[in-house]
Design a protein that fits this description.
- The protein is an all-alpha fold.
- The protein has one domain.
- Helices cover 83% and strands 0% of the residues.
- The chain is built from 9 helices and no strands.
C-alpha cells in the first residue's frame, strides 16, 4: 500500500505542477505582466524576468495565505467574494494600461526627466501588488474552492507546488518576452506605437474583465 500511496502523492504533485505552469498563461495574467513589461524602458530579459517573478511572488503570497485559511477553516471560510477580486484585477489592468500611455506620452513630448524618474525603479513592486490580486481571482479562486476536496495530506504540498510553478512559469514567460524584444526589437517609432497599443489594449481588456465579473 505504501508504494501505491507514494505514487499517488507524486501524481498529485505532478498535476499541481502542470496546473500551476498553465495557470500563469491565463490571458489576464499575461496581459497584466505584459503591460508592466511594456512600461519598462530597458526591457532586458533579466529585468522582465524579475517582473514576472515579482508577479508570481505576489500571486503566491495571496494564494497560499487564503489557501491555508481554506484548509484550516474549511466551509467556515467560504464563500469569499471572488467577483470583487476579479473586478479589482480588471481595475489593476486598466491602471497598468493608463500608466503605459502616460509614460510614453510624456516621453514623446520630450519630458525626459519625469519619464526617467518613473523608470529608475523597477516595476517589480507594482507587479507584486497585481500578483496579489490575481492570486485569489479567476482560476486561482477556483483552485482554492477545490482545496477541501483534495486528500488532506496533499493540500498544503499541492498548494505550494501550484504557487511555486506559477511563479516560475511567469518568470520564464517574461524572460522570453525580454529576449524577443532584445533580439527583434522594432525601430524606436514602431516600438513606441507598439507600447501605446499595449496600453490601449490593456485598458479595453480591463474594462471587459470588470464587466464580465459583474
Amino acid at each position: 500500500m505504501r508504494p501505491a500511496m507514494n505514487d499517488l502523492a507524486l501524481l498529485g504533485l505532478g498535476g499541481a505542477a502542470v496546473l500551476g505552469t498553465r495557470h500563469a498563461l491565463d490571458p489576464d495574467h499575461l496581459i497584466a505582466v505584459g503591460g508592466l513589461a511594456a512600461a519598462e524602458r530597458a526591457g532586458t530579459p533579466p529585468r522582465l524576468g524579475a517582473i514576472g517573478l515579482a508577479w508570481g511572488a505576489g500571486h503566491a503570497i495571496s494564494l497560499v495565505s487564503v489557501g491555508l485559511l481554506v484548509i484550516v477553516l474549511g466551509d467556515a471560510f467560504m464563500p469569499f467574494p471572488s467577483k470583487i477580486w476579479e473586478q479589482l484585477v480588471g481595475i489593476s489592468i486598466i491602471v497598468v494600461g493608463i500608466r503605459i500611455i502616460t509614460l510614453h506620452i510624456v516621453s514623446g513630448r520630450g519630458k525626459r526627466g519625469a519619464a526617467m524618474t518613473a523608470h529608475k525603479g523597477s516595476n517589480c513592486l507594482p507587479a507584486v501588488g497585481v500578483g496579489v490580486l490575481h492570486g485569489i481571482a479567476g482560476s486561482g479562486g477556483v483552485t482554492l474552492l477545490l482545496l477541501p476536496y483534495v486528500p488532506e495530506a496533499m493540500r498544503v504540498p499541492g498548494l505550494l507546488v501550484f504557487a511555486a510553478t506559477t511563479c516560475l512559469s511567469m518568470g520564464l514567460c517574461a524572460t522570453v518576452l525580454g529576449i524577443v524584444m532584445q533580439r527583434g526589437g522594432p525601430p524606436p517609432k514602431r516600438a513606441h506605437a507598439a507600447r501605446m497599443f499595449i496600453g490601449v489594449f490593456s485598458i479595453v481588456f480591463g474594462f471587459g474583465f470588470v464587466a464580465g465579473a459583474g
